[in-house]
Specification:
The complex is a heterodimer. Chain A is mostly helical. Chain A has helices at about 10-40, 45-55, 60-70, 75-100, 105-110, 120-130, 135-160, 175-185, 195-210, 215-240. Chain B is mostly helical. Classes of the chains: A mainly alpha, B mainly alpha.
Chain lengths: ~240, ~100
């Protein structure tokens, strides 16, 4: 028997629910924001630059990756390419939300994805599959994470400068550990071993022999291409 | 230290904002016209994690023992315990410990 679907809604009650549901994770996000602030200080990035990034870019992996490239003069093209490669995944995430969002007028649809990140997307999609139709879950989750991220960054920027020898406390590896955690901590699948290996190897070779920063693009494309080629190859093997 | 001119930083940040928000909106625009195929999904999925791998690898290869130990510790904890905060804490602890003993 098909359960009658509730209509899509967006209101304050749902938004509050989203904020409350995201609170436990937001505590972690404060810590990550703090780590970003500290890393920014020790990478020589100005406080206002880091703050603007957290306020408006609101995407931890791209912000951490940008720190790595924040030298004068800024490699704008490389920075854009890296940001694009990291964010193509958000394109898929918002695409997955389309069936839910399409009830809204287009302007509201676009406004709803401003605060879209991996965590509130995952939470909202999970609730959607359980029958929740209030989009406030998505919005509230985003608001909680954004507040935590911006607040954490501010704390990190304020206190990060007080440490003179960051290496002695292992503060220089925060960025590395964070990116590593995102890659392997999410949902590691054995099938990704080969694409990642190819990405690592090609990135390293590009790092040694190509102009600066191209290695990130080379690695990303190699990983993507290898992943697409793999299953087709396996399919052909098993078919013949 | 960063001595990049203000306008350059502003352009860079605006560029990041445009791309970050643009990709979120683009997904909706594409879906309102054509649904994405599984191969495109696979490519994008692999690419967005490979880009992080590509950033990390040279840091690990050219880093000192502390950096490498931190990578091993953080990676192991991330896979086994699935706890991001513990993962980063263990990485920092490993790096700090290594440098305490060997430098």
């Amino acid at each position: 028997m098909k359960v009658k679907e509730n209509p899509t809604r967006l209101d304050i009650t749902g938004t509050w629910k989203g904020i409350r549901m995201m609170m436990p994770l937001a505590v972690f996000t404060i810590a990550f924001g703090l780590a970003f602030g500290v890393a920014a200080v020790h990478q020589g990035v100005a406080g206002w630059e880091a703050m603007l990034m957290s306020l408006f870019v609101f995407a931890a992996p791209s912000q951490f990756a940008a720190l790595e490239m924040w030298h004068s003069p800024l490699p704008l093209l490389a920075l854009a390419a890296v940001t694009l490669a990291i964010h193509t995944r958000h394109m898929l995430m918002s695409a997955a939300l389309y069936p839910w969002l399409k009830a809204l007028p287009q302007r509201q649809q676009f406004a709803m994805v401003i605060l879209l990140t991996d965590s509130n997307w995952a939470m909202a999609l999970g609730e959607y599959q359980r029958g929740e139709r209030n989009l406030g879950i998505l919005l509230g989750g985003g608001i909680a994470l954004w507040g935590a991220w911006v607040g954490g960054t501010a704390i990190g920027l304020a206190f990060g400068g007080g440490i003179t020898e960051p290496e002695r406390f292992g503060l220089d590896v925060i960025m590395l550990c964070f990116l590593l955690m995102i890659v392997v901590g999410g949902n590691p699948r054995a099938a990704m071993a080969l694409p990642w290996l190819a990405a690592a190897a090609s990135a390293l070779m590009a790092y040694w022999w190509l102009p600066p920063y191209l290695h990130v693009m080379v690695g990303a494309l190699t990983g993507g291409v290898v992943a697409v080629l793999l299953p087709g190859h396996w399919l052909r093997e098993s078919a013949s | 230290m960063s001595s990049s001119p203000v306008w350059q930083s502003l352009i860079a940040i605006m560029l990041m904002v445009a791309i970050a928000y643009g990709s979120r909106v683009l997904g909706l625009l594409i879906m309102s016209r054509v649904p994405l195929g599984p191969r495109v999904r696979l490519f994008v999925d692999a690419m967005s994690s490979s880009v992080l791998i590509a950033v990390i690898t040279p840091i690990i290869v050219h880093g000192d023992g502390g950096v490498r130990l931190a990578a091993i510790a953080a990676g192991t904890v991330a896979v086994v315990m699935r706890n991001p905060l513990v993962s980063i804490a263990m990485g920092m602890l490993s790096a700090a410990g290594w440098r305490w003993w060997f430098t």
